């Protein structure tokens, strides 16, 4: 894991890393931060023309809706950064590129190999656009690349290890610190901070009151961090209201736990969430906007929540949610969801389309939200 962590930081800084898959060496670079010089430089270092690895979600935008997985797109020599951005996350690549060229590039698609899949996993873990510039190292350049790795200029990481980075480190969550913090709706609260072993993310368990022990189901809310809604009161979602309502509801139920998870934007990160908001302003709904960027409808994983509950000795819960996916994820992790309780915020003109997409396309249990013109709304 140590090399993967360092590789993620290098990719975020715009540096290439070497992914090793068997006897193959592949230079990998993020699309974000790439320049025309760095793109051509990657080709020179590898001794061959780079390719672009794209997720199946992005491939659907490029006219490949039947793609079952990621694929690599061969790039003509001299392809610059602007074209890469158009292909990787441009809203309408067919407008920015000649239709004949786009069709030709689609015909050059090949299934992603181990190093390609590892590259996409690293991008996702780094909260970057899930597209990667890759270049297989030729035999002529292999010794030069290995020399750069030996001298510490570049990092090398195994493809299998990198591909597993999205799974996190189950059972290795670190309980770091805690403190009593009274809240407006619950004066008896204890905040417990957990850190993932790679140090990239920290999550907080808010223990409200004295949760009942034994076989009694503990009231529980899994709340994904939302800077814009939780802190600034954004009207584009109802996250802030749900957060505060969850604290009040758990207090009224006699105590329980709220897990505040570092999963901004359904797991795509704040930078990509803001990009998705800009796309929504052009008329897309939240799910289509995420797909334009190469993401699925929900990139969150809940293994860390299961680990936090294990650390707190909680195995049976009364879950405050409207998202069946959270119920399934906890059950798969061995947590018994005894009961579900809906959790609502307020419907407004700014979040109506967002909530409609969640209800109609993502299967969230929001029928009561849209009963009548006005009324409560919910976010998972």
Automatic annotation (TrEMBL):
Its cofactor is Zn(2+). GO terms for cellular component: cytosol. Pathway: Cofactor biosynthesis; riboflavin biosynthesis; 5-amino-6-(D-ribitylamino)uracil from GTP: step 1/4. Binds 1 zinc ion per subunit. Zn(2+) binds at residues 226, 237, 239. It is an enzyme of class 3 (hydrolase). Pfam families: GTP_cyclohydro2 (PF00925). Residues 175-341 form the GTP cyclohydrolase II domain. It catalyses: GTP + 4 H2O = 2,5-diamino-6-hydroxy-4-(5-phosphoribosylamino)-pyrimidine + formate + 2 phosphate + 3 H(+). GTP binds at residues 221-225, 242, 264-266, 286, 321, 326. The active site is at residues 298, 300. Keywords: GTP-binding, Hydrolase, Metal-binding, Nucleotide-binding, Riboflavin biosynthesis, Zinc. Its EC number is 3.5.4.25. PANTHER family: 3,4-DIHYDROXY-2-BUTANONE 4-PHOSPHATE SYNTHASE (PTHR21327:SF18), GTP CYCLOHYDROLASE II-RELATED (PTHR21327). Catalyzes the conversion of GTP to 2,5-diamino-6-ribosylamino-4(3H)-pyrimidinone 5'-phosphate (DARP), formate and pyrophosphate. Belongs to the GTP cyclohydrolase II family. In the N-terminal section; belongs to the DHBP synthase family. This is GTP cyclohydrolase-2. The lineage of its organism: Bacteria, Pseudomonadati, Pseudomonadota, Gammaproteobacteria, Oceanospirillales. The gene is ribA.
